[in-house]
Design brief:
Layout lengths: L6 H10 L21 E14 L6 E3 L21 E2 L2 E2 H10 L3 E4 L23 E2 L7 E2 L5 H11 L2 E6 L6 H12 L5 H8 L10 E4 L12 H12 L11 E8 L3 H9 L8 E13 L5 H9 L1 H16 L8 E12 L2 H7 L8 H16 L6 E5 L9 E3 L7 E3 L1 H9 L6 E7 L8 E6 L3 E8 L6 E7 L6 E8 L18 E3 L2 E3 L2 E6 L3 E8 L2
Parallel strand pairs: 1-19, 2-5, 2-13, 5-8, 8-9, 9-10, 10-11, 11-12, 12-13
Antiparallel strand pairs: 1-16, 3-4, 6-7, 14-15, 16-17, 17-18, 18-24, 19-23, 20-21, 20-24, 22-23
Helix pairs in contact: 4-5, 6-7, 7-9, 11-12
The structure holds alpha-L-arabinofuranose.
Amino acid sequence: MALTLSRRQFVRNAATLSLLPLVPRNLWTQSASASSSAQRVLIHPDVEIGLVRPELHGHFAEHLGSCIYGGLWVGKNSSIPNINGYRKQAVEYLRELGVPVLRWPGGCFADDYHWRDGIGAPAQRPKRVNIHWGGYVEDNSFGTHEFIGLCRLLNAEPYLAGNVGSGSPRELRDWIEYCNFPSGSTLAVERAANGSPEPFHVRYWGVGNESWGCGGDMKPEEYATLYRDFAVYCREFGGTKPFLVASGPSGADVRWSRGFMDNLRGAQPQGLSMHYYTGGRDHATDFTPEHANDQLSLYTRVEQAIVQQRHVLDGYRDGQNVGLILDEWGVWDRIPPDDEKRYGKLWQQSTIRSAVAAGLGLNIFNRQADKLYMCNIAQIMNVLQSLLLSDGPTGEHCVRTTTYHAFSLFKPHRSQRAVRIEAENSSPLGLSVSASKSDKQLVLSLVNPRGDADLQVECTLAGSSAKTGSAQILHDQDLNAYNSFEQPDRVVPRPHPVQVNGSKVQIDMPRLSVATVILQTA
Ligand code: AHR
């Protein structure tokens, strides 16, 4: 995590930077910094943290509200413009952003989903009750083939969440064979008859979801036993080795992770999935400044939880080989019942506050790039902190939310190497910063979560300098500003002035803003 420096310490360190090839984590002591409009940041382009895996910008789609039905999937006969049933506008926006990985079909839904219900002729598919999300009748018209079709349209890596809660090892084993076995087995022949002679090559497989809660209400040792029972039958087919993701803790619960790891007896997963939502006390478009501060302050805890979970895993033999996955994250505000009735369950607006929250999260993922394997925001469309919103199952409108735009600002970091930063004030509502580099460029992301202070930021590039730079900013003075169907482009990234002078970079960060600066270094 970034350190908090007093102003005097910061100036002293900036002066001696050239003498420091590597900066140890605790070089400077923590101290509270007075609220100030000027902020300094040290960037260490030579101190690499790790690769910013594109999967840190991953997504999640559940059979919940209007995420799938009426959101991403409108059906082939819909009057809403579509590409083989997928909402055209959504596909276009998401292709533009890039979706590295997409997790499906849940969430809680996954542990009551039986994949065979979603294959074959749509009219013949069984109708089931979605017991988790409102008891509506799920007609299964969107199933495995439709999901893989969406991933192909988006160029996204599919990630299927298997059913442990009400399913069986055999059911999951068969789903993997159905998806990945090249040809000749009854399941592969069935896949071909359903339109896909080519295997799907699905690599990521979740083994249950929230097994401590909606996915079975288990104790960690009970889940570890079940995990082993399932994992032993999850096999490589056609050269696609499954990457198994075990159900991890809620938030910072290290007791769950230890209890699970202690009882595995060798069946170690490739990934462990933690979930961390940052709850909000108000409706999304009606936040008080105080409640916004409370929510945004929680990101310090998210970062601590990631560090703690990594630490727990690293404590086990071969534990460093288990990828830590933040499988569900984002703001979960109070949801107005009228919005849910109109647009679907957990339909939530995204405001500049949500974009700031997204920026705080994405900055954390850069800073902790060596500890994380994948992060999937909840959810991609029409549910919780979504990237896209449509106006109900029959509505033609589809807007890019402020969260979409925050993600687009972080896109230049993908596949770069995250580098070390030190912020003068890393208290929960201090300026949040991260940086990454490639051969020719250094990318900085800055987030000002304060609703009451504009910041003039000066960044010093330690042992490096930039030739030119450009910046884009997402900002609104109004804490509750959002992109509506009437005003879809109210909050969008705009070019923003940045002064580059050798190793000094200066940028103004108005209250509630997210900015990315791209510096040419070669
Ligand atoms: O994203 C909504 C729900 O939140 C998911 O179904 C579940 O995994 C979590 O509790």
